Amino acid sequence: MDATNTLPVTNDDDDEMLASLWEVWKTSLQESYYGWTSLDQWIASGRVGFDPSHPHHRVNRLDLYGCRLKGPIPSQLECLSSLTQLNFSHNELTGLPPEVGQLTSLIRLNLSGNMLKDLPPEIGRLSFLQRLYLSRNQLRSLPPEVGCLSSLQVLDIDHSRLTSLPPEMGRLSSLTRLDLIANQLTSLPPEIGLLSSLLELWLSHNQLTSLPLEIGHLSSLQ
Predict the structure, then answer these.
(1) How far is C-alpha 165 from the geometric centre of its chain's CA atoms?
(2) CB 3.0 to 4.6 Å from 191: which of 38, 88, 167, 195, for a disulfide?
(3) Contact 105, 125 (CB under 8 A)
(4) 44-49 contacts: CB < 8 A, separation 24 or more?
(5) Given pLDDT bands bounded at 50, 70 and 90, which one contains residue 148?
(6) For 148-172, b where at least 16 C-beta lie within 10 A, e where not — what string?
């Protein structure tokens, strides 16, 4: 096991936050496939990562994949301000709190396979985010603020319920992959032609009858 996974949490805020999350989700974590019986056991499992370069070994990775979590994600999560990777995929989560916008160090956020119906506008504050996975949720739209994700390279929202895309998505100049398979899209905004870095665009199993002429501007598309 990587030694960074067993380092003690010496930052008070991180220590309290992990303990708080354990109390909120203790029953789910104990009844999950992994069967963790204590906070220490969960931390030692490798699902919580620490930054060895930080003097207080701040938590920089949290992986709660497939842990039977239900309800909204606790707003206290904002206390883990050094997180760079956050994985809540394959649970039954219903809400992402506005406080997610405080996690400004995030590079990778995986919320696939949940029951999310919307995203808070504050998600647009994650200026370092490179990968955002939202597949298999119940999203019908995206907030315009998603266009502020200037570092975003991968956006996967397949098998959801999107009926439209905000024009602001055209500002995602770093985006290389956009997966929109199996939604309910009837049209694409002309601004999609501004995605100059786009290499992959997946659109099958929607309700599109035509594409904007501007899509021809995507000269890097493969």
Answers:
(1) 18
(2) 167
(3) no
(4) 44/1, 44/5, 44/6, 45/5, 46/1, 46/2, 46/5, 48/5, 48/18, 49/2, 49/4, 49/5, 49/85
(5) very high
(6) bbeebbbbbbbbbebeebbebbbbb
